[in-house]
Amino acid sequence: FVEENGGRVIVNGIGMCEVTFFPEGLMHYQRNLGCETATYISALNSKDPGVITVTTHFFRLPTEEVQGSLGQDEYKVQ
């Protein structure tokens, strides 16, 4: 996930039967790096997730993830 206001990009690697969290209102993504089907469960606890400017944070995600999201090659993403 990407912290607000120019903060860090945080990458959590989790394995089978492990959990992680995404702070409320922050841009995040999930990716299954394995070949096996993964199950994803999400729980939200607030009607007000806060504010984040997506355009300023999206391109701070890893290039490979942005490429996959947009279906574009590295040159176009850069």
Features:
single chain, 78 residues, mainly alpha, 3 helices, flat
Sheet having the most strands: none
Count of helix runs: 3
Poorly predicted runs are none
Cα gyration radius (Å): 14 Å
Mean pLDDT over the residues: 78
Q: Roughly how many Å apart are the termini?
A: 19 Å
Number of strands: 0
The run of helices and strands is HHH
- Percentage of helical residues? 10-25%
- Oligomeric form: single chain
* Shape summary: flat
**Beta-strand content bin:** under 5%
Structural class: mainly alpha
Topology diagram in text:
Elements: H1 54-58, H2 63-70, H3 74-77
Describe the structure.
By secondary structure, this protein is mostly helical. The chain is 22% helix and 0% strand. The protein has helices at 54-58, 63-70, 74-77. The mean pLDDT is 78.
In short:
The protein has 3 helices and no strands.
